Amino acid sequence: MIHLLNPKTIKLIPLNSFCKEKQISFSLSIWQITSLAGLMLLIPYIGWELFWYKKVGMAAIKPHTYAVGSVVFVWLFTIPLKFRGFIKKNLMIGIIYLILCLLIGEIHPFTLMPMYNKFVNYAYSFKVTDKEGKVIPVSSYYSTTCGSLAHKFYAIAQTFGINYGFDSETPQELQLIGKQLLKELQASRKTNPQADTIYLYLVNHSFENDSIVKTERLMYAAKVGQ
Amino acid sequence: MQLKWGNENTLAGWYWLCIKILFTWYWFLQMRSMIRSSGSYLYPAGICKLYHFNFLFTGPGKWTLVLLLLVCAALYISEKRMLLATGALTLLTCLIISRSESTGVLLRATAYTPLFAVQFIAYLFAKFNTGFNLAFYRQQYAVQIIAAIYTVAAISKLSASGLSWPQDGSSLFAIQMLKGFSAEYFDTANVSALQKGHLLANGLLAHKQELKLLLWGSLLLELFCFTATLHPRLKLIYGIALTLMHLGIYLSMNILIGGLVYPMLTFFINPLYLFYLLIQKLRSTTAA
């Protein structure tokens, strides 16, 4: 027999007497039973699909994926009014947006929120120095930040078709990106830094043998104001 | 009950007005900063794939854009011509964010456009369906969008890293943290930022298990964010939990995803309304 814990008396009471007392009926329609059974099959199916999607990417998306997706979509629209009302009230717009995000991807106003979705063993930051290697504070002299420079680094690398990350860029590739980055930086200049030439470095932090390792590589140097 | 469009002098009316004021404030600051920094065009993103809209990001174009934003924001806050206001705000926000993303700098302000879009949808439904509960749905749709974004973030983590995301993070989070503080040091030349980064990173490496638990917590919190749409109390609890999560990210990584945090704070917690209630309570106590 199924028992419930009564919070008022802290006593175990049989489920059927609890239901009688609270006038709860357990009648399920054929539709609800079918839906529950369908969901029981759907959950492992989604797991299986996700597993293969992770393994082989888009090749995992087969006609049956679309067929099941369509059936679920139709199911959502044909469920009894009360439950449909619940979904419409609490979830519908959000779920539509979520599905569109997953289908369309990183195109505004949709997003996949990819930041930090994978922890990688490199972390790039960018520093600007003078000839002696003294740090030139970017936000004091330019209307940008090192964070923005990092975003631009990835964007420029993608534009040039350069594979980035894990310190894998060649010196030539770094020079190519660095030149463009320094051009962008100089274009946002508020005032000239106290230096003839500025040097842009790529700083990488990585994790090796249970400790953090830092490397610095010169990307590009340019005369101030050029 | 069908609600007439307007900022009615009721608790529900004040609740909505506080949401609009706070939301518009954050939104406007972010849009202004995006318009200001709309530098060189690296590659077209979003709506800019259709047309570059360069003329709007010249000197006079920027002023016109800001003026348009202010007019629409004034209409929106004063609850006048809401279909026009929310429609125009959706398009303008989409345009400004697309343009900003075209410069290569991703400020993660994605939420603003769909948030205005769903409010437009709510007002559209109310126009054509007299039984539509506008007072409820104009907020509820926004809450659903925010919940969807958090859920997408969790799905993205699970699809990119699988269930090992918290495990990977327990070791590699420290270098991402150090990156954040290094960037602050390179921005300001303030050595204490770098020292703080090293201190925190070493601290985290010494407490990998605790960090793993926290990462699991944040992943589950994001994954089940739709729970917040079910009841106002759940929404408040979720809002507080997400605020704590973002506070943790800010303190540890020096990162604040303002484009998501501020709308979440506004729609989940509505701090301005809480402040209004506090003032009302203090007033009634003083009067008594």
Overview features:
heterodimer, A: 226 residues, alpha+beta, 2 domains, three-stranded antiparallel sheet, two-stranded antiparallel sheet, 8 helices, 5 strands, 18% strand, B: 288 residues, mainly alpha, 11 helices, 75% helix, 0% strand
Helix content of chain B: over 70%
- Return the domain count of chain A: 2
Helix and strand succession of chain B?
A: HHHHHHHHHHH
User: What is the distance, rounded to the nearest whole angstrom, between the alpha carbons of the first and last residues of chain B?
Assistant: 34 Å
Radius of gyration of chain A: 29 Å
How would you sum up the global shape of chain A? Answer: elongated
Task: Kindly report the greatest chain-chain contact and the residue count on each side.
Answer: A-B, 65 and 68 residues
What structural class results from the helix and strand content of chain A? alpha+beta
**Poorly predicted regions of chain A:** none
Succession of helices and strands of chain A: EEHHHHHEHHHEE
Strand content of chain B: under 5%
Q: What is the residue-mean pLDDT of chain A, rounded to a whole number?
A: 82
Q: For the CA atoms, what is the radius of gyration of chain B?
A: 21 Å
Describe the 3D structure.
The complex is a heterodimer of chains A (226) and B (288). Chain A is an alpha+beta fold. Chain A has two domains: 3-79, no CATH class; 123-223, no CATH class. Chain A has eight helices and five strands, in the order E-E-H-H-H-H-H-E-H-H-H-E-E. Chain A has helices at residues 15-22, 30-56, 63-78, 81-90, 92-104, 138-141, 146-160, 171-187, and strands at residues 3-6, 11-14, 123-129, 197-208, 211-223. Chain A has a three-stranded antiparallel β-sheet. In chain A, strand 1 (3-6) and strand 2 (11-14) form a beta hairpin. The relative contact order of chain A is 0.08. The mean pLDDT of chain A is 82. Chain B is mainly alpha-helical. Chain B has a domain at 1-132. In chain B, helix 5 (134-161) crosses helix 8, helix 6 (165-188) packs across helix 8 and helix 9 runs antiparallel to helix 10 (258-269). The longest helix of chain B has 28 residues, at 134-161. The two termini of chain B are 34 Å apart. The chains are: A alpha+beta (226), B mainly alpha (288).
